[in-house]
Design the sequence.
């Protein structure tokens, strides 16, 4: 129940911040804001203040802003306070304000996270990647622990990183394997770190011969962890912006690799397995809640970044789609036919809704398996 409440709270904050960005810029541009809604209709309560209805709605998911003349076929589109009649610069500022608000929120939350972690943040590496404007080191990450294995008996957990073994610093999987494979039956002291809170602990583990590998092993699947250290004054001062940039850049590159792999193999499964809808995000939120407040904040910042990036894509019904039509107006020096623009956004919204339902179905199928 706590995870569900936190999931709804995070989702609502992200959407409300996004809509608040549109609201503020619309007010500054003199555009009429007909309604600012908390939650989604049906309406439970509303009050009109200075021409704007501020409403509370029954569905507790985010919110919305309704602008005068936002719909190009609106009968009020030619009025003075209409979005439709405002200058290109004013309309662009309103359209991109939601994206900017989500990015600023991510930067702010990342400042809190980075400070709480002592200016040291870890990210699991799915592809080889160089993070910019920050000191980067690598650690060995425990991705899986076999039940009943030596690692399991020693208390090693998935998501632990291995800093050292027998006093020898470990920064590569090959170095760790070399020590383990030469230490069958020996009791080894291993220094571990929890990347979520950077707390360290030591364990005793005894490698045992593994017939499948034909070598001593401790029973773990290993990966690589990038450790980002914000050491200089400049790095610390700009850490929120740096981490937002690096996180977004890395996420885009990983997703691009997945799409490339899917095209090469002619199989959409790698992409579908990496994309989550509301159900999948709720499950991830539950995992973050179990790991503590810092993990929840990290998830919130990441979701805010993703929301900003997705919304700026030139897709119908999204902010990027509306921005595209404005740019098209700049290039052609004429308005797009209002009914055409409306239908493009309507069809785009229907397709996005269908895609969301498909992703949700896939998330539920993952849970059932």
Sequence:
């Amino acid at each position: 129940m706590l995870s569900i409440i936190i999931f709804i709270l995070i989702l609502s904050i992200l959407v409300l911040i996004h809509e608040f960005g549109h609201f503020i810029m619309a007010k500054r541009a003199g555009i009429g804001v007909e309604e600012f809604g908390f939650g989604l209709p049906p309406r439970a309560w509303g009050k009109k203040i200075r021409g704007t209805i501020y409403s509370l709605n029954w569905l507790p998911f985010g919110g919305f802003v309704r602008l005068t003349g936002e719909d190009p076929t609106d009968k009020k589109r030619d009025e003075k306070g209409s979005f439709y009649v405002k200058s290109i610069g004013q309309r662009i500022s309103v359209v991109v304000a939601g994206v900017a608000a989500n990015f600023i929120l991510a930067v702010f939350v990342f400042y809190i996270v980075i400070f709480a972690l002592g200016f040291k943040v870890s990210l699991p590496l799915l592809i080889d990647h160089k993070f910019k404007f920050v000191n980067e080191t690598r650690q060995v990450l425990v991705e899986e622990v076999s039940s009943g294995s030596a690692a399991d008996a020693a208390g090693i957990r998935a998501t632990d990183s291995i800093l050292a073994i027998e006093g020898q610093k470990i920064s590569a999987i090959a170095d760790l394997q070399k020590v383990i494979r030469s230490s069958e039956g020996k009791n080894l002291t291993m220094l571990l770190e929890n990347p979520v809170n950077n707390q360290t602990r030591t364990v005793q583990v005894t490698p045992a011969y593994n017939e499948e590998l034909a070598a001593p092993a401790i029973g773990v699947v290993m990966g690589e962890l990038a450790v980002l250290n914000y050491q200089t004054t400049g790095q610390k001062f700009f850490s929120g912006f740096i981490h937002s940039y690096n996180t977004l850049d890395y996420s885009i590159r990983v997703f691009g690799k997945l799409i490339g792999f899917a095209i090469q193999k002619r199989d959409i499964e790698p992409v579908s397995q990496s994309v989550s809808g509301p159900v999948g995000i709720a499950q991830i939120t539950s995992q973050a809640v179990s790991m503590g407040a810092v993990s929840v904040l990290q998830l919130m910042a990441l979701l805010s970044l993703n929301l900003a990036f997705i919304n700026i894509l030139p897709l119908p019904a999204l902010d990027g789609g509306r921005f595209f039509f404005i740019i098209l107006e700049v290039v052609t020096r004429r308005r797009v036919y209002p009914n055409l623009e409306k239908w493009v956004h309507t069809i785009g919204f229907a397709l996005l809704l269908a895609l969301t339902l498909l992703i949700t179905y896939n998330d539920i199928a993952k849970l059932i398996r």
In short: The radius of gyration is 25 Å. The longest strand covers residues 33-49. The chain has two domains: 2-32+68-115+277-368, 135-229.
